[in-house]
Amino acid sequence: MTAVALIFSCMPAIAQEQKEKEKSLEEKCEDEADRLQNVLKLEDWQVFYVDSILKHDYAALKADYDELQKSRVANSTLYELARDKWMEKIDLAYQKIFTPEQWAKYLKQGAGREIKAREKRRLKAQEATEATQEKGKKSKKK
Questions:
Q1: What's the chain's average pLDDT?
Q2: I want to staple 51 with a disulfide (CB 3.0 to 4.6 A). Which of 33, 60, 107, 120 is the partner?
Q3: Within its chain, how far is the Cα of 56 from the centroid?
Q4: Are 98 and 106 in contact (CB under 8 A)?
Q5: Alpha-carbon distances, residue 113 vs 98, 107, 109 (angstroms)
Q6: pLDDT tens, 1-46?
Q7: What is the rounded CA–CA span in Å between residue 113 and residue 11?
Protein backbone atom coordinates (compact mmCIF):
# COMPACT_ATOMS: atom_id res chain seq x y z
CA MET A 1 0.00 0.00 0.00
CA THR A 2 2.84 2.38 0.86
CA ALA A 3 4.61 1.57 -2.39
CA VAL A 4 1.46 2.34 -4.39
CA ALA A 5 1.04 5.66 -2.56
CA LEU A 6 4.68 6.49 -3.23
CA ILE A 7 4.31 5.74 -6.94
CA PHE A 8 1.22 7.92 -7.24
CA SER A 9 2.87 10.74 -5.32
CA CYS A 10 5.76 10.69 -7.82
CA MET A 11 3.49 10.79 -10.88
CA PRO A 12 3.13 14.61 -11.00
CA ALA A 13 6.91 15.01 -10.78
CA ILE A 14 7.44 12.47 -13.56
CA ALA A 15 4.78 14.15 -15.71
CA GLN A 16 6.42 17.54 -15.14
CA GLU A 17 9.83 16.12 -16.07
CA GLN A 18 8.43 14.64 -19.27
CA LYS A 19 6.75 17.94 -20.10
CA GLU A 20 10.09 19.74 -19.68
CA LYS A 21 11.81 17.17 -21.90
CA GLU A 22 9.24 17.87 -24.60
CA LYS A 23 10.00 21.59 -24.73
CA SER A 24 11.51 22.78 -27.96
CA LEU A 25 14.88 24.46 -28.15
CA GLU A 26 13.16 27.81 -28.71
CA GLU A 27 11.02 27.36 -25.59
CA LYS A 28 14.05 26.46 -23.50
CA CYS A 29 15.87 29.56 -24.76
CA GLU A 30 12.87 31.74 -23.98
CA ASP A 31 12.62 30.23 -20.49
CA GLU A 32 16.31 30.92 -19.84
CA ALA A 33 15.95 34.49 -21.13
CA ASP A 34 12.97 35.00 -18.80
CA ARG A 35 14.91 33.51 -15.89
CA LEU A 36 17.85 35.82 -16.50
CA GLN A 37 15.48 38.78 -16.85
CA ASN A 38 14.07 38.06 -13.40
CA VAL A 39 17.39 37.31 -11.72
CA LEU A 40 19.47 40.06 -13.32
CA LYS A 41 16.70 42.64 -13.83
CA LEU A 42 17.41 42.82 -17.55
CA GLU A 43 15.83 45.46 -19.73
CA ASP A 44 13.62 44.39 -22.63
CA TRP A 45 16.33 45.00 -25.23
CA GLN A 46 18.74 42.82 -23.21
CA VAL A 47 16.19 40.00 -23.01
CA PHE A 48 15.80 40.19 -26.79
CA TYR A 49 19.56 39.83 -27.25
CA VAL A 50 19.84 37.03 -24.69
CA ASP A 51 17.05 35.12 -26.43
CA SER A 52 18.66 35.67 -29.85
CA ILE A 53 22.11 34.65 -28.61
CA LEU A 54 20.77 31.49 -27.01
CA LYS A 55 18.70 30.45 -30.01
CA HIS A 56 21.61 30.93 -32.39
CA ASP A 57 24.34 29.40 -30.25
CA TYR A 58 22.32 26.45 -28.95
CA ALA A 59 21.29 25.64 -32.51
CA ALA A 60 24.95 25.77 -33.55
CA LEU A 61 25.90 23.56 -30.58
CA LYS A 62 23.21 21.07 -31.57
CA ALA A 63 24.58 21.09 -35.13
CA ASP A 64 28.07 20.36 -33.77
CA TYR A 65 26.68 17.52 -31.64
CA ASP A 66 24.79 16.13 -34.63
CA GLU A 67 27.94 16.25 -36.75
CA LEU A 68 29.91 14.41 -34.06
CA GLN A 69 27.15 11.85 -33.73
CA LYS A 70 26.92 11.45 -37.51
CA SER A 71 30.68 10.79 -37.54
CA ARG A 72 30.09 8.16 -34.84
CA VAL A 73 32.38 9.91 -32.38
CA ALA A 74 32.27 8.13 -29.03
CA ASN A 75 34.82 10.30 -27.24
CA SER A 76 32.87 12.36 -24.71
CA THR A 77 35.72 14.86 -24.50
CA LEU A 78 34.99 16.03 -28.04
CA TYR A 79 31.36 16.68 -27.12
CA GLU A 80 32.54 18.55 -24.04
CA LEU A 81 34.91 20.67 -26.14
CA ALA A 82 32.08 21.57 -28.51
CA ARG A 83 29.87 22.51 -25.57
CA ASP A 84 32.64 24.58 -23.98
CA LYS A 85 33.24 26.43 -27.26
CA TRP A 86 29.62 27.53 -27.54
CA MET A 87 29.17 28.27 -23.82
CA GLU A 88 32.22 30.52 -24.02
CA LYS A 89 30.71 32.35 -27.00
CA ILE A 90 27.48 32.82 -25.07
CA ASP A 91 29.32 34.23 -22.07
CA LEU A 92 31.36 36.60 -24.25
CA ALA A 93 28.16 37.85 -25.87
CA TYR A 94 26.48 38.25 -22.48
CA GLN A 95 29.42 40.23 -21.18
CA LYS A 96 28.92 42.72 -24.02
CA ILE A 97 25.24 43.34 -23.26
CA PHE A 98 25.15 43.08 -19.45
CA THR A 99 26.04 45.97 -17.22
CA PRO A 100 29.02 45.38 -14.91
CA GLU A 101 26.59 44.80 -12.03
CA GLN A 102 24.53 42.30 -14.04
CA TRP A 103 27.67 40.51 -15.17
CA ALA A 104 28.92 40.21 -11.60
CA LYS A 105 25.57 38.82 -10.49
CA TYR A 106 25.53 36.42 -13.44
CA LEU A 107 28.95 35.12 -12.43
CA LYS A 108 27.76 34.65 -8.85
CA GLN A 109 24.77 32.63 -10.09
CA GLY A 110 27.12 29.83 -11.12
CA ALA A 111 28.53 31.08 -14.40
CA GLY A 112 31.82 31.94 -12.70
CA ARG A 113 32.33 28.32 -11.68
CA GLU A 114 31.44 27.17 -15.19
CA ILE A 115 33.94 29.58 -16.73
CA LYS A 116 36.69 28.36 -14.39
CA ALA A 117 35.83 24.72 -15.15
CA ARG A 118 35.96 25.41 -18.90
CA GLU A 119 39.32 27.12 -18.53
CA LYS A 120 40.66 24.20 -16.52
CA ARG A 121 39.47 21.72 -19.18
CA ARG A 122 40.97 23.88 -21.93
CA LEU A 123 44.36 23.98 -20.18
CA LYS A 124 44.25 20.23 -19.56
CA ALA A 125 43.49 19.57 -23.25
CA GLN A 126 46.24 21.96 -24.29
CA GLU A 127 48.75 20.20 -22.02
CA ALA A 128 47.69 16.82 -23.41
CA THR A 129 48.15 18.09 -26.96
CA GLU A 130 51.59 19.47 -26.14
CA ALA A 131 52.59 16.18 -24.49
CA THR A 132 51.43 14.25 -27.54
CA GLN A 133 53.41 16.56 -29.81
CA GLU A 134 56.52 16.08 -27.66
CA LYS A 135 56.13 12.31 -27.88
CA GLY A 136 55.81 12.61 -31.64
CA LYS A 137 58.98 14.69 -31.89
CA LYS A 138 60.93 12.23 -29.73
CA SER A 139 59.77 9.23 -31.75
CA LYS A 140 60.76 10.94 -35.04
CA LYS A 141 64.30 11.58 -33.71
CA LYS A 142 64.81 7.86 -33.08
A1: 85
A2: 33
A3: 13
A4: yes
A5: 18, 8, 9
A6: 544 444 555 556 655 666 656 788 899 999 999 999 999 999 999 9
A7: 34
